[in-house]
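testing teh design pipeline on a random one, pls ignore if ur not involved
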């Protein structure tokens, strides 16, 4: 049975979470509604994350990895995962597992009629400051993009690979994935998913890069929207 879904898992200094990532995905694969595999993208981790990833991939045929030579950031890791996906669908989840792999089954139910399905974190388990800064950032971004999405920062998404691989990513644009699918005249949908406290490791984003960074990225998005090239081929001599 061929794989249908590649799930990209960006990793930066997450050595304390990776054993749980392996365990939860091994459990998920048994009930996955689409045959799935994990693609770790090690973003230049400075701890033992890469060694652990190699061990996981050596003992599990449903796990693969690519490793950057240096830290390039979350957007680059997601872009690399999209570029290396060889399945019909590509997903994304953070390695802190504040969302659950099991909820990919919730997203897959909707992907047939849509080109991107994203989770909305219900009953978020983060601290007040993090929740409020995320709400403010989402409101700012939504006013710029008009994408109708309430929680684009939710690290649980499924995209049709042909759309994902056409996204011209740059730093910070991971927050604009639904908007970038809309630029391709694709259809997007959001569905509620569960959210959990971070058990191990440290958050990589603070208040500064949840508020000021996304505001600057909004202007980058507006520039890209104006310059975005979109075309459809009507016919070709190649048969």
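output:
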């Amino acid at each position: 049975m061929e794989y249908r879904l590649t799930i990209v898992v960006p990793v930066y200094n997450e050595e304390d979470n990776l054993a749980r990532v392996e365990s939860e995905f091994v459990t998920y694969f048994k009930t996955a509604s689409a045959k799935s595999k994990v693609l770790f993208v090690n973003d230049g981790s400075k701890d033992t994350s890469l060694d652990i990833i190699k061990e996981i991939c050596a003992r599990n045929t449903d796990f693969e990895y690519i490793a950057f030579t240096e830290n390039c950031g979350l957007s680059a890791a997601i872009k690399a995962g999209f570029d290396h996906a060889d399945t019909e669908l590509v997903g994304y989840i953070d390695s802190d597992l504040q969302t659950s792999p099991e909820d990919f089954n919730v997203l897959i139910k909707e992907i047939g009629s849509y080109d991107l399905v994203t989770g909305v974190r219900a009953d978020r388990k983060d601290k007040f400051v993090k929740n409020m800064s995320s709400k403010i950032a989402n409101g700012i971004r939504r006013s710029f993009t008009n994408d109708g999405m309430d929680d684009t920062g939710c690290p649980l998404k499924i995209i049709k690979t042909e759309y994902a691989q056409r996204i011209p990513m740059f730093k910070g644009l991971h927050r604009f994935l639904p908007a970038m699918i809309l630029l391709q005249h694709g259809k997007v949908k959001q569905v509620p998913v569960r959210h959990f406290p971070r058990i191990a490791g440290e958050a990589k984003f603070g208040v500064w890069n949840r508020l000021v960074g996304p505001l600057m990225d909004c202007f980058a998005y507006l520039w890209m929207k104006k310059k975005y090239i979109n075309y459809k081929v009507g016919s070709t001599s190649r048969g």
